[in-house]
């Protein structure tokens, strides 16, 4: 489902001037993950664990905005997810107007976030047009999460409104003692925003808050994600950012590593 795209005058000018893709470039990134508990937990006695992820991006070339991201993969040591035990919401439900994601059942929203970005043409020339949507993340079942941008006002994102970008899936998996959340960013939110050719989205910063939801399974309390181990007194994590300099180009991946007290 698509509504008629409304683009501000400044953005139209930017797109008209941007007829060719900008040459290959790299971004610099920041990533910090803070956790709600420093307890380790074990597989037999897990501890509920929420976290807040703060991400940032910038172009290495002065006067340019960040090259659009096409994938973000977060890896956190000593965590596991239990999304199968919680309510789900489908992409079809999320995109049903006029309520959109508000149609989703209680308990299916696993995380919320805010995004600061710029929208402009493929030359990545600043300043672009501000796009500051909210982000809602829903349990889609089968270890899938649906990411959906909502706009709190008509001016929040260059005239785009809720429903003009489609939900996109992320995958939650386990790799040894690591919980991995891999989120491919489709053209609809990266190099062809709202299905508009040559409309690029450039991240400035993003904050995602993931709550430790609880439910009962056969009389036992389980949580949407839990801590089951630490590495010494630390909880290592990494965020791999993949960006492209132009639509259809090969991605360039940069990984930022960190750790938290555990």
Sequence-ordered SSE layout with sheet pairings:
Blueprint: H1 9-17, E1 27-35, E2 47-48, E3 51-59, E4 69-77, E5 79-81, H2 91-94, E6 109-120, E7 129-131, E8 134-141, E9 144-150, E10 168-175, E11 178-184, E12 200-210, E13 214-217, E14 220-223, E15 225-227, E16 234-243, E17 252-261
Report on this model:
It contains two helices and 17 strands. The chain has 262 residues and is mainly beta. It has one domain. It starts with 8 loop residues before the first helix and ends with a strand. The relative contact order is 0.28. The N terminus is likely disordered.
Give a short summary of the structure.
This protein has 262 residues and is mainly beta. Helix content is 5%, strand content 45%.
Total discrete domains: 1
SSE run = HEEEEEHEEEEEEEEEEEE
Measured by DSSP, the beta-strand proportion falls in over 45%
Shape: globular
Uncertain segments of ≥5 residues (pLDDT<50)? 1-25
Question: How does the helix and strand content classify structurally?
Answer: mainly beta
The count of strands amounts to: 17
Q: Span from first to last CA?
A: 45 Å
Radius of gyration: 19 Å
Helical run tally: 2
Please give the share of residues in helix.
under 10%
Describe the biggest sheet? 12 strands, antiparallel
Mean pLDDT: 89
């Amino acid at each position: 489902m698509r509504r008629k795209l409304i683009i501000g005058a400044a953005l139209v000018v930017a797109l008209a001037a941007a007829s060719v893709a900008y040459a290959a470039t790299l971004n610099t990134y920041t990533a910090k993950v803070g956790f709600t508990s420093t307890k380790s937990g074990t597989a037999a006695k897990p501890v509920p664990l929420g976290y807040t992820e703060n991400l940032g991006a910038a172009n290495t070339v002065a006067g340019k905005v960040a090259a659009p991201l096409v994938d973000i993969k977060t890896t956190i040591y000593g965590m596991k997810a239990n999304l199968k035990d919680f309510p789900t919401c489908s992409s079809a439900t999320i995109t049903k107007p006029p309520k959109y994601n508000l149609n989703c059942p209680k308990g299916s929203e696993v995380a919320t976030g805010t995004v600061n970005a710029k929208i402009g043409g493929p030359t990545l020339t600043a300043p672009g047009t501000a796009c500051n949507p909210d982000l809602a993340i829903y349990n889609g079942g089968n270890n899938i999460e649906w990411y959906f941008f909502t706009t709190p006002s008509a001016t929040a994102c260059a005239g785009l409104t809720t429903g003009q970008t489609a939900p996109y899936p992320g995958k939650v998996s386990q790799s040894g003692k690591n919980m991995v959340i891999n989120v491919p960013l489709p053209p609809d939110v990266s190099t062809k925003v709202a299905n508009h050719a040559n409309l690029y989205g450039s991240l400035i910063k993003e904050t995602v808050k993931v709550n430790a939801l609880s439910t009962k399974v056969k009389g036992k309390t389980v949580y949407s994600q839990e801590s089951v181990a630490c590495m010494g007194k630390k909880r290592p994590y990494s965020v791999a950012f993949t960006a492209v300099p132009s639509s259809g180009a090969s991605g360039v991946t940069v990984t930022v590593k960190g750790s938290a007290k555990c």
